[in-house]
Amino acid sequence: MQDLLTIFFAKYFGYVLLGILAVLWLRNFKKYLPLFWQAAAAAILSRGIITEAIRFFWHRSRPFVEQNLTPLIDHSASASFPSGHASFYFAIGTVLYFYNKKAGMVFLLGATLIGIARVLAGLHWPSDIIGGAIIGIACGILVIQISRKN
Hints:
Vanadium-containing Chloroperoxidase, domain 1; mainly alpha; 79% helix
């Protein structure tokens, strides 16, 4: 049962979070349209640019590679630091927090659960998740700050 929960949170729970976020956007589309663009910008900056740049210059092996284990989820032996999932979901959760504190906290809790599950699945070291979370939170704050100045 623990393995099934770990797989669910590590692989599928992010889709649940994005679905909940989509419902929030659709319920009050005009109010939350800036949230959509800011969350997208923070996610792209954190996951698509910063995380990939770090991985390009510094390769850290994944736990299942170093420990010669089979992970719970099939994954390539690509660089593990920082966690792309953590940077992506923490960036979105941080932007959401500035619009709706309660929903933002729930989303950030969900991002934390995804990170823990990815460690338990053998895909990441805890420091990969922490690094990704820091990058995601920083990018979310940066995008909000830049948006408020314009």
